Amino acid sequence: MTKTRICVYCGSRLPESTGIISLAKQVGDEIAKRNWGLVYGGGKVGIMGVIADSVLEQNGEVIGIIPTALKKAEVVHTGVTQVIETPDMHSRKAKMEKLSDAFVILPGGFGTLDEFFEILTWKQLGFHSKPIILVNQSEYFDGLTQFLDTAIGLDFIKETNRSLFQITKDSNETLELLDTYF
Ligand code: AMP
Question: Which atom of ligand 1 is nearest the CA belonging to 108?
Fold first, then answer.
């Protein structure tokens, strides 16, 4: 049986909200406890670093995927199980998708949002059918989900495509949902 791997997209910055930091720690902890692997952007900084460290503390598997050009800017995490270097952003995202069985989106910035929408649009186009979970910890994504309702209301997004991703509110709900899949 192949190992289940969860891709986590999240911020390369560290917010002051302790709720979000503990969310990243808990999700990492629970991934490792289930003997799943973590696939992520490979950095040592921000929420990305927090979740990687949390999985590593439990002796879990962490695969970091980072473009060569970002190794410095995002401070590549050298303590992970495996670092996969890619020539560019596109191959990074493709590799992250290929290695993972589900996608979890924690709070983050432009990069995280880009990754969320890319994996969502790939699903909309039928390129994969893996679970996508948006974790709305501390109501961080409220504005985004409201906007998506506007887009659905105007029929820019098909109503039925709303079910291409699920929203959870914290680590417990997220892991409960993942447990139903794996
Ligand atoms: P951020 O959410 O902006 O802190 O970025 C989180 C991660 O998303 C970082 O590892 C970025 O390299 C990555 N990322 C993915 N796609 C993009 C993109 N198009 N622009 C910026 N960052 C991106």
Answer: 2
DSSP for residue 2: P
Domains contained in the chain, CATH given: 5-181 (3.40.50.450)
> Token pair of 111, please?
């990069």
Query: Do 52 and 44 meet the contact criterion of CB atoms below 8 Å apart?
Result: yes
pTM score of the predicted model: 0.96
- Which pLDDT belongs to residue 17? 84
In order of 1, 115, 121, 132, the CA distances from 107 in angstroms are 32, 12, 19, 14
What values do phi and psi take at 83, rounded to 5?
-110, 125
Residue 37 pLDDT: 98
**Residue 53, pLDDT above cutoff 90:** yes
- Residue with CA nearest ligand 1 atom 20: 111
Whether residue 42 contacts residue 81, with contact meaning beta carbons closer than 8 Å, is answered with: no
Q: What is the DSSP string of 70-105?
A: GTTTTTB-TTSSEEEEESSHHHHHHHHHHH-SEEEE
Q: How far is the CA of 175 from the centre of ligand 1 (A)?
A: 24
Rounded to an integer, the average pLDDT of 65-84 is 92
